[in-house]
Amino acid sequence: MALVLQKIYKFYDYHFNENVDERIKDLFLMQSPWLITCIVGGYVFFVTGFGQRLMKDRKAFDLTSIINIYNIIQVFLNLFMGLGALITLFDMDDLNLTCVPVARLIKTEMGMKIIRFSHMYHLIKVIDLLDTIFFILRKKNHQVSFLHIYHHAVMAGGTYLYIKFCSGGGQPLSLGIINSFVHVIMYGYYFLTSFKPELKQSIWWKKHITQIQMIQFAVIIFHHLLPLYYECSFPKTLSAIVAFQNIFMLIMFSDFYVKAYIKKKSVKHN
């Protein structure tokens, strides 16, 4: 048992202390894995039971103004992240979209730019956790699904590991860019519906936003399968993990799409 614990400690010490890119050591939330572990753990604890119990005998909070500000901030943050990372990507020397190098291997100002945008993407994913917390505080518990919680928790924790081990860049840079633009559309929709509630009744908007998210997963899966077939500096194991994760998300979203838009439509027609 002592030998096993010693090996675990050595693995942890090497990957989280010794073999770390010096450029990311002082970035916010990157100093220790325990910070993000506590944030994600606290989030899951709150949204899977504690929050509902806390709000059970309380009146739902009116967070309309706060959520409006949150949504518009998300639009601008994701737009800045998406455009900035996209410009940086196409400004790279010898750009090869089938194999994007990790920032850990780029010891130039370009590498630092990639690190900054990748880190910003991670922070946005941490901010995204507020989505579910708002649901709980407004007593919209029916909107707190396994898919919703799983997606937010994995993105917040996964982006931390991505920067820790790759310093940013690599194939997941495409994920960050595509996902940022998808979130511009999504949060833009949320912001508009706060002023025009009648838009919520239109299935057209929701249906196409879900379709865009599904296309996003398909593109990301394809892009992360490429390093498995071509020689690439991006770790094949990580590429396979990201591809598998997005296959799972595509299946989950497809299931939601069928239940929400296809089966409901056929029931109405009957």
Automatic annotation (TrEMBL):
<keyword id="KW-0812">Transmembrane</keyword>
<feature type="transmembrane region" description="Helical">
    <location>
        <begin position="144"/>
        <end position="163"/>
    </location>
</feature>
<dbReference type="GO" id="GO:0009922">
    <property type="term" value="F:fatty acid elongase activity"/>
</dbReference>
<dbReference type="InterPro" id="IPR002076">
    <property type="entry name" value="ELO_fam"/>
</dbReference>
<comment type="similarity">
    <text>Belongs to the ELO family.</text>
</comment>
<protein>
    <recommendedName>
        <fullName>Elongation of very long chain fatty acids protein</fullName>
        <ecNumber>2.3.1.199</ecNumber>
    </recommendedName>
</protein>
<feature type="transmembrane region" description="Helical">
    <location>
        <begin position="34"/>
        <end position="55"/>
    </location>
</feature>
<feature type="transmembrane region" description="Helical">
    <location>
        <begin position="212"/>
        <end position="230"/>
    </location>
</feature>
<keyword id="KW-1133">Transmembrane helix</keyword>
<feature type="transmembrane region" description="Helical">
    <location>
        <begin position="236"/>
        <end position="258"/>
    </location>
</feature>
<keyword id="KW-0443">Lipid metabolism</keyword>
<dbReference type="Pfam" id="PF01151">
    <property type="entry name" value="ELO"/>
</dbReference>
<keyword id="KW-0276">Fatty acid metabolism</keyword>
<feature type="transmembrane region" description="Helical">
    <location>
        <begin position="67"/>
        <end position="90"/>
    </location>
</feature>
<keyword id="KW-0444">Lipid biosynthesis</keyword>
<dbReference type="GO" id="GO:0034626">
    <property type="term" value="P:fatty acid elongation, polyunsaturated fatty acid"/>
</dbReference>
<dbReference type="GO" id="GO:0034625">
    <property type="term" value="P:fatty acid elongation, monounsaturated fatty acid"/>
</dbReference>
<feature type="transmembrane region" description="Helical">
    <location>
        <begin position="175"/>
        <end position="192"/>
    </location>
</feature>
<dbReference type="GO" id="GO:0042761">
    <property type="term" value="P:very long-chain fatty acid biosynthetic process"/>
</dbReference>
<dbReference type="GO" id="GO:0005789">
    <property type="term" value="C:endoplasmic reticulum membrane"/>
</dbReference>
<keyword id="KW-0275">Fatty acid biosynthesis</keyword>
<keyword id="KW-0808">Transferase</keyword>
<dbReference type="GO" id="GO:0019367">
    <property type="term" value="P:fatty acid elongation, saturated fatty acid"/>
</dbReference>
<keyword id="KW-0472">Membrane</keyword>
<feature type="transmembrane region" description="Helical">
    <location>
        <begin position="119"/>
        <end position="137"/>
    </location>
</feature>
<dbReference type="GO" id="GO:0030148">
    <property type="term" value="P:sphingolipid biosynthetic process"/>
</dbReference>
